[in-house]
Amino acid sequence: MTFRRIVDDLTGRSHHQLTDLLAAQLDAAIEGVGLASAMSEGTLTPAEAREAMVDVEHRGDTGRAGLVAELAVALTTPIDREDLYRFSRSVDDVLDNLRDLVRETDLYGAEGEPADLPALAGVAEGLAMLRGAVQGLSDRPGEVDAATEAARKAAGQVRRHYQLAMAELLRREVGADTLTRRELLRRLDVVGLRLGESVAALSDAMLKRSH
Fold first, then answer.
1. Structural domains of the chain, count
2. Angle ∠(127,156,45) on CA atoms, nearest 5
3. What is the CATH classification number for the domain harbouring 168?
4. pTM of the prediction?
5. What one-character DSSP code corresponds to residue 116?
6. How many CB atoms lie within 10 A of CB 108?
7. Predicted confidence band at 9 (pLDDT cuts at 50, 70, 90)?
């Protein structure tokens, strides 16, 4: 380990490098939910959204790889190292499931569903709150707690949408598209669940840091 590396750790500069990498990961996930929303409102076809998602996923993977590499050499971290890794992995899972939502919509020959826009807006809001939270990890813990709670509520919107949409689907006469809609709703629900796991990882980390 170089002297410069030690200085960066002791002065907290490496903390900012880690939070910047997390922010880059969250930016990719936010762009991913933007593509899913554009597909749902009909601005993009499923095929167009799927193609655009390839680049977004690559940037998300690059950000995560950079974070893992930085964690391997960092002497200190702004929150517990294991929680930081878990948070990063959960954010990656959010993007992966957004990718799968778009890909499966295209594979199944389905159209985007405008009714899903409120749930996707909840995902976007939750990710934006988490992005703000990670920027305050080093020196604004009070803001992190508030942003994390807001993100938790946003994630809950997705589960409520899934439950209501599934109840409505089951009241309909079964048709050729019923199974497709059920599978895509389930995928959207998983996006919300992974967002909730991201929130939990960050909440756990802040709780540990306060003790």
1. 1
2. 60
3. 1.20.58.220
4. 0.90
5. G
6. 15
7. very low
